[in-house]
């Protein structure tokens, strides 16, 4: 009876249930951990000017480049079955170290910036590794039925994480939340080991390779991303799609950051956590029960550009009415749509690629290219506001044009996937 209900509601087949439940728990735990420290990180941003934050984002890009290069080296040398759990164990230990540094040096201005940068690196790489793993376990047909449901685990984790921050930020302090987050990262380590032993339709072709390293060189991911002909390179197309996405997220992030300048750190943590909570409550039902139906019925040709097109309209509304609650509403709709619809749809594209592209090339896109987009749009925002003196409404008008290009590229990528 349970199998029948799951098949009707979620399109999951009985032989897939164990792997899907483990994957759901996997993404839940890493997102819960991340969202606990995300609100701590974002609360720090209001201590810096737009130019200072743009500089920090620039450093984040260069650190991301180094980390992804090292990750590519690790992929080439470490046995695949230990690669994924090892990544989460490593980040857990580094956050324990940062907590110690913050508590021992409370007056330092450098350590909070280091913490901000490292959380930003972790935020992208840990999700990239997870979805690379999912594209390795499930095939193209399975991804259309399953990825939406699994993505709901990320939304639930992203509800749980900020809830912890909301409840305990004032009671135990923002720094103590880092300990909770660090401890939670041990959970996905064990789940990854269990998933490595699971057998699915797509996994059988990769099972022999689980006891060996992927091989190659640390720069292979960068080569795959820039492989000619570049206009027909799927990885390059996904990378540009992400750069356009970062434009919208950067504009909205800076707008909210500036509004919270005069608010104390613990209250900022709670406000950012409240936004996260609203985003993920909206996103979880859509991801769990709507995304798979959307992709199966309309394909990625419609699914991938859907949220970008909605954002085009939302940015035009913001240009006409540049007020606080419109900005917050845009942030909630944009991120909920990204997590519930756009991201799982985008991750389906990687099921058509080989393992090296999924792990090495994908990490270049998800971390280095993403952070390159961050610094480009961060300095663009700074130039528009502090250089040209544009108001929020003027920036929103420019953002609507960026969103239109984002929607068009989503249509092209979705068409490619549906024709494969």
Could you describe the 3D structure shown?
By secondary structure, the protein is mainly α. The protein has one domain: MFS general substrate transporter like domains (Growth Hormone, Chain: A). It has 14 helices and no strands. The longest helix has 56 residues, at 265-320. Residues 199-207 have low confidence and may be disordered.
Instruction: Predict the CATH topology.
Output: Growth Hormone, Chain: A
The CATH superfamily title: MFS general substrate transporter like domains
Largest sheet: none
CATH architecture label: Up-down Bundle
Shape, principal axes of CA atoms: globular
The counted number of beta strands is 0
Q: Which CATH top level class fits?
A: Mainly Alpha
Give the number of helices: 14
Order of H and E elements: HHHHHHHHHHHHHH
Q: Structural class of the helices, strands and pairings?
A: mainly alpha
Question: Could you name the key traits of this structure?
Answer:
420 residues, mainly alpha, Growth Hormone, Chain: A, globular
Task: Summarize, please.
The chain is mainly α.
């Amino acid at each position: 009876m349970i199998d029948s209900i799951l098949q009707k509601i979620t399109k999951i087949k009985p032989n897939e249930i164990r792997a899907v439940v483990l994957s759901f728990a996997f993404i839940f735990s890493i997102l819960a951990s991340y969202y606990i420290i995300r609100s701590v990180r974002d609360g720090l941003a209001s201590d810096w000017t737009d130019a200072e934050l743009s500089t920090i984002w620039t450093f984040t890009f260069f650190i991301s480049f180094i980390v992804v290069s090292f990750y590519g080296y690790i992929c080439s040398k470490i046995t695949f079955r230990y690669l994924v759990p090892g990544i989460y164990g490593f980040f857990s230990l580094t956050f324990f170290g940062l907590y110690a540094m913050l508590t021992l040096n409370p007056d330092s201005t450098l350590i909070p910036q280091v913490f901000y940068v490292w959380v930003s690196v972790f935020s992208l790489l840990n999700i990239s590794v997870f979805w690379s793993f999912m594209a390795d376990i499930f095939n193209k047909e399975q991804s259309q039925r399953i990825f939406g449901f699994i993505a709901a685990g990320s939304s639930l984790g992203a509800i749980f994480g900020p809830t912890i921050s909301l409840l305990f930020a004032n009671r135990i302090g923002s720094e103590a939340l880092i300990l909770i987050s660090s401890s939670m990262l041990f959970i996905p380590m064990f789940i990854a080991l269990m998933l490595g032993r699971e057998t699915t339709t797509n996994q059988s072709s990769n099972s022999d390779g689980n006891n060996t390293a992927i091989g190659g060189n640390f720069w292979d991911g960068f080569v795959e991303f820039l492989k000619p002909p570049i206009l027909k390179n799927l990885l390059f197309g996904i990378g540009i799609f992400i750069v356009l996405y970062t434009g919208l997220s950067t504009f909205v992030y800076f707008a909210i950051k500036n509004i919270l300048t005069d608010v104390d750190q613990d209250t900022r943590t709670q406000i950012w956590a409240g936004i996260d909570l609203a985003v993920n409550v909206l996103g979880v039902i859509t991801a769990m029960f709507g995304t798979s139906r959307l992709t199966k019925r309309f394909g990625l040709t419609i699914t991938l550009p859907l949220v970008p097109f909605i954002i085009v309209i939302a940015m035009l509304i913001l240009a006409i009415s540049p007020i606080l609650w419109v900005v917050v509403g845009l942030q909630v709709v944009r991120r909920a749509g990204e997590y519930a619809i756009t991201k799982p749809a985008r991750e389906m594209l990687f099921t058509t690629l080989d393992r090296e592209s999924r792990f090495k090339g994908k990490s270049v896109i998800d971390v280095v290219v993403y952070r390159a987009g961050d610094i480009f749009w961060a300095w663009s925002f700074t130039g528009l506001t502090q250089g040209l003196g544009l108001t929020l409404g003027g920036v929103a008008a420019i953002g609507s044009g960026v969103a239109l290009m984002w929607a068009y590229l989503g249509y092209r990528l979705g068409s490619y996937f549906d024709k494969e």
